[in-house]
Amino acid sequence: MKSSFARARSLRKNARKPAAARELAGWLGSLTLFLMCAAGLSFATDVVTYHNDIYRTGQNPHETILTQSNVKSTTFGKLFTMPVDNVIDAEPLYLSQVAIPGKGTHNVIYTVTENDSVYAFDADHGTLLWQVSVLGPDETPSGTHDCGQISPVIGITSTPVISRAGPLGTIYLVAMSKNSSTYFQRIHALDVTTGKEQPGSPITVSAKYPGTGADSHGGYVYFDPGQYAERAGLLLLNGVLYTGWTSHCDQDPYTGWIIAYNATTGAQVGVLNLTPNGSQGAIWQAGAGIASDGTSLYLLDANGTFDTDLNAQGFPVNGDYGNAFVKISKSNGKLTVADYFNMYNTVQESNADQDLGSGGAIVLPDITDNNGQVHHLAVGAGKDTNIYVVNRDNMGKWNSTNNSNAYQVLTGVLPGGVWSKPSYFNNTVYYGDVGDHLKAFTFSNAMLGSSPTSQSAVTFPYPGTFPLITSNQGANGIVWAVSNANPAVLYAYDATNLAHELYDSNQAAGGRDQFGPGNKFITPIVANGLVFVGTQTGVAVFGLLH
């Protein structure tokens, strides 16, 4: 089937250049745009991917309007809410200056719901610009599969990703649906200006991988769309769209799938199963996107089979990486595990459901120690109360007696366990574990401090919180965090001292700024002086009061 996810492809097809030159020019153009956006050098106020960048640092260093002095209940609060048709579990995304046919140019908020709906709103006024359903004929969203983790239905759960490449731009998303007899998982590529499907979209997800593990036959494990949900935020890296798949609760049979597609052609370009000869090992990450350093992928795998028999290179003999901090690269055109770290007691942790997979990972910028040595690090944590810092150049693999193979382990510093992800700003990692204070851990001599340098006065119920940091090139740093309470609460803190609360949405009299009951997945975004929070019924918008 002839397929394309981008209008740019049809334009290139008619360009008067040799095929190789056209391909190279297109690839270089997409790569240049990607690098500019990732670095924050183009469309500085855009939020096109989960937690602002492919590293998943959760910081926006281009916020010039909101400051520590004006984010307070007398001058800042809820402006309006943009209603939708079901629960929003994905992070909203933002594009500045989008030309909408027949409606002029707008700053646009994009949001998706579990009803398989996609919305584009004017971000400044809340006007609906377009709305589409990605359900097929005679289809509905999936039921919950007797698992309350995604509820009341399962449609679009994960955070989409946007590419400005091409004349208009594309929003990519994954939607689950069903008819009377069949479940579907589809990747959709929609025009950001109209919501219309791009040529060749949607693509129905299917996959197989060599193995004898759960749900296998004939020497392959097979992807069963009814057994999975796409929860982790999508990653668009060098023209490839990466998806990661989780189960419904721990309902067997399932294994750990990563499936990749060419974002232009829609062709499947990579499949990796992290437990092909075992079981479980899903990609949960509390909705956090798979992280990348621009070349490799990094994620935390959930409870599942880990082969404690290792080959000569230190890798599991059967290729099973349950409960591991994993680095994935392309080798000879295939996705492979390039390196990993796993805890000495990983089998016991998986058996007790105390795995890493409940949390998300971040890739840190280069950190230099006192001797001038540069370290390439990543950070992750899960249910076992520890923070794990790994060296991306040598993650440590598995040691049967202790965790000395890791770059650094901070033991017991997150006593509630992590069902969220950290963020990074100005040499500091911010974590919000369950039932605990939001905490700041600061690097010194390329080592993360074992005690918080500051923490919030309030604690955050399950699942903890997903901190987001805004600043104006490092100045006026504000940490934003949402509490999954009833009513939910939006907090703003001084990034240098979390004990200094600037604002919370319960402060204003008469419940002026309240926005309904909490939603465990959601993380806010901030762009151009506005804060956007997904809720069970819409997107609440906060900003300076007029």
Can you characterise this structure?
The chain has 546 residues and is mainly beta. The chain has one domain: Quinoprotein alcohol dehydrogenase-like superfamily (Methanol Dehydrogenase, Chain A, 8 Propeller), CATH 2.140.10. It contains 3 helices and 42 strands. A hairpin with a 3-residue loop joins β32 (428-432) and β33 (436-444). It is globular. The protein starts with 6 loop residues before the first helix and ends with a strand.
**Relevant CATH superfamily:** Quinoprotein alcohol dehydrogenase-like superfamily
Determine and state the CATH class. Mainly Beta
Biggest pleated sheet: 5 strands, mixed
The helix/strand class is mainly beta
pLDDT under 50 segments (min length 5)? 6-43
CATH architecture: 8 Propeller
Strand content: 35-45%
Question: How many strands?
Answer: 42
Shape: globular
Number of helices: 3
What is the name of the CATH topology?
Answer: Methanol Dehydrogenase, Chain A
What is the domain tally? 1
Secondary structure: elements and pairs:
Elements: H1 7-14, H2 19-39, E1 59-60, E2 76-83, E3 93-100, E4 104-112, E5 117-122, E6 128-133, E7 161-163, E8 170-178, E9 183-191, E10 203-204, E11 208-210, E12 216-217, E13 220-222, E14 228-229, E15 235-237, E16 240-244, E17 246-247, E18 257-262, E19 268-273, E20 291-292, E21 297-300, E22 324-331, E23 334-342, H3 346-351, E24 362-363, E25 367-368, E26 374-375, E27 377-381, E28 387-391, E29 397-398, E30 408-410, E31 423-425, E32 428-432, E33 436-444, E34 447-448, E35 454-460, E36 468-472, E37 475-483, E38 489-494, E39 497-504, E40 525-527, E41 530-534, E42 538-544
Parallel strand pairs: 1-36, 23-29
Antiparallel strand pairs: 2-42, 3-4, 4-5, 5-6, 7-8, 8-9, 9-10, 11-13, 12-13, 14-17, 15-16, 16-18, 18-19, 20-21, 21-22, 22-23, 24-27, 25-26, 27-28, 28-30, 31-32, 32-33, 33-34, 33-35, 36-37, 37-38, 38-39, 40-41, 41-42
